[in-house]
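#lab-general

N.A. 3:47 PM
ok so I finally got the sequence cleaned up, no stray characters, all 115 residues accounted for. can someone with queue access submit it? mine expired

B.Y. 3:52 PM
send it over

N.A. 3:53 PM
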Amino acid sequence: MRHHNSVRKFSRETGQRRALLRSLAEAIATHGKIMTTVAKAKELRPFIEKMITIGKKNTLTSKRFLVKNLGTVQRASTVSKCAEKYADRAGGYTRIVKLQDRMEDGSPMAVIEFV
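B.Y. 4:20 PM
back already:
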């Protein structure tokens, strides 16, 4: 049973999973929306929303936190620029729209985008 196991592992080790979330977060911050699987979109949503909320503060501490969690200064600055658009919004920065299953393997697909 999977009691108290809310993290999706995607058959990856911790470092690989963290790198996946970082790259997905950079992609959505750069392009505004991305198409991915439903499971990855659901895992990305709380990650990117926390980064946007922290990026709205625009303090030295928040910038360091973003660099620590996103990996590079470039990614952190990209997320900070996205956070400026949501300065007056309390939360709920993203939406997930489900699409048809992928033809190759039947994986359920979704688009995750900023509101």
